[in-house]
Design a protein that fits this description.
The protein is an alpha/beta fold. Strands 11-10-9-12-13-14-15 form a seven-stranded mixed beta sheet, sandwiched between helices. Bound molecules: ribose-5-phosphate.
Length: about 280
């Protein structure tokens, strides 16, 4: 039984097409701006789904309120499915006095939820902050199915070594080679970025990453690939956290930009719903 929060309304129709059973929930505001939540129906297990894109803080609070309401109704086993997990990039203290924000959010959710499922969390190690079972859902199936026919005998690239694992899985599912960009110092003042140990000349390239924010990473990668003679450049990314104008800038720089629907955007052409509706509850 699914409960759909405000951050997953855009997934509801598709979830219903997959036959997902959905528990009704009333979400509105009190006149003073506070959130009102009421869950209808009863049961023993529920999966609450909501992506925490902007306004992030409000959607996180809503998840806590829904969790509290479900416990109040007697639900014993609660799972949270958070396709895009806000605060995922705040995973370390950069300046003294800062919090590890992702840890704070995970711990708060752990007060109500027994299990947590996140699509392509920025740093999978941070899932250990969640007190219960926490699972990272790979976007590889979805990205692969979307780009397989377009890429042909191409290459899958990660924009940096840290993003290589995701690109490797996609490449292996498609059956093509993969690599990542690396910085090379060519003089004391000059750093060059280029893909390692692959020749992209005349080939289609799919760049795979977890997030596009300003689009700077993808635009830079695309301009390098064009200089190296790449044929068509595709970008397949999990979360489209687009800053103002980023969709247009990246779209202009590449042949096709497609992100998954963890966040609803005009280029959210890849669906992660099949991966979510097929999640198997961990009973006991
Ligand atoms: C970095 O660690 C992330 O994986 C992305 O590469 C980064 O957040 C993309 O940011 P932008 O679109 O602003 O270059």
């Amino acid at each position: 039984m699914f409960v759909i929060g405000s951050g997953a309304k855009h997934l509801e129709d598709e979830m219903r097409q997959f036959g997902a059973e959905i528990l009704e929930v009333e979400l509105r505001r009190f006149p003073d701006g506070e959130k009102y939540v009421r869950v209808m129906g009863s049961g023993s297990e529920a999966t609450v789904i909501s992506s925490t894109f902007y306004p992030q803080d409000e959607r996180i609070l809503e998840l806590l309120l829904i969790g509290d309401a479900l416990r109040e109704r007697g639900f014993e086993k609660l799972r949270a499915v958070i396709p895009y997990f806000a605060y995922g990039r705040q995973d370390r203290v950069v300046k003294e006095g800062e919090p590890i924000s992702v840890r704070a959010v995970m711990r708060a959710l752990g007060l109500y939820y027994d299990e947590l499922y996140v699509v392509d969390i920025h740093n999978p190690k941070t899932l250990s902050y969640f007190p219960g079972k926490a699972v990272n859902i790979s976007p590889a199936r979805a990205i692969t199915e979307y780009f397989r026919g377009k890429l042909g005998e191409g290459i899958v690239l990660a924009p940096d070594r840290g993003a290589l694992r995701r690109a490797k899985v996609v490449a292996e599912l498609i059956g093509v080679e993969y690599s990542h960009f690396e910085k090379h110092r060519i003089s004391p003042t000059d750093v060059e970025m280029r893909p390692v140990e692959v020749d992209v000349s005349g080939k289609n390239v799919l760049i795979v990453d977890d997030i596009i924010s300003t689009g700077g990473t993808m635009i830079k990668a695309s301009s390098i690939l064009k200089k190296l003679g790449a044929r068509r450049i595709f970008v397949g990314v999990t979360h489209g956290v687009f800053a103002e104008g980023a969709i247009e800038r990246v779209s202009k720089a590449v042949d096709e930009l497609a992100v998954t629907n963890t966040i609803p955007t005009p280029v959210s052409k890849i669906s992660i719903v099949p991966d979510i509706v097929s999640l198997k509850p961990n009973r006991g």
